[in-house]
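Researcher: Quick test of sequence recovery. Tokens follow.
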């Protein structure tokens, strides 16, 4: 007998959709990296334009995205609202965070494609590592949202806390 599928708007379904979004964005970044690395052409003039803007943007996003995430999470952290409401806010906050990180990565890859300097590939790797650290995990959601034991059991369903 197959276990029942989670409800369309259940906390487990929200978490499953977050994982799909995360891995789809991850695949897009990796594909664009391969294309940019293969098609890059050295252009010193473009490098002169981008060499300060791209690192500044990258540093700003790597430092700012977790801050924005925590500000959004504070709306429901430890509050007496339903688990579904907490998960909706978690989904919004995480999507904003990973979208910002993906955007910074794409700017680095654009620099790689247009300027051709591997300097931009290294910056992309830094952003990509920050992106990987943002993978949605049940244990991180439970910690960030300060879920009680009952809410954690509801979120996990039958799966172990990972």
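Model:
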């Amino acid at each position: 007998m197959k276990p029942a599928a989670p409800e369309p708007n259940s906390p487990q379904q929200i978490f499953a959709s977050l994982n799909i979004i995360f891995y789809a964005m991850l695949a897009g970044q990796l594909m664009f990296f391969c294309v940019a690395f293969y098609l890059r052409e050295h252009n010193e003039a473009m490098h002169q334009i981008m060499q300060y803007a791209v690192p500044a943007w990258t540093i700003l996003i790597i430092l700012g995205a977790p801050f924005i995430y925590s500000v959004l999470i504070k709306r429901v952290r430890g509050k007496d609202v339903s688990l579904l409401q907490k998960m909706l806010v978690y989904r919004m906050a995480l999507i904003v965070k990973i979208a910002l990180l993906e955007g910074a990565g794409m700017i680095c890859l654009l620099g790689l494609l247009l300027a051709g300097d591997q300097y931009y590939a290294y910056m992309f790797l830094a952003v990509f590592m920050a992106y990987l650290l943002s993978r949605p995990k049940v244990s991180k959601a439970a910690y960030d949202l300060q879920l009680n034991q009952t809410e954690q059991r509801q979120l996990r369903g039958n799966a172990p806390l990972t």
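The chain has one domain: 11-145.
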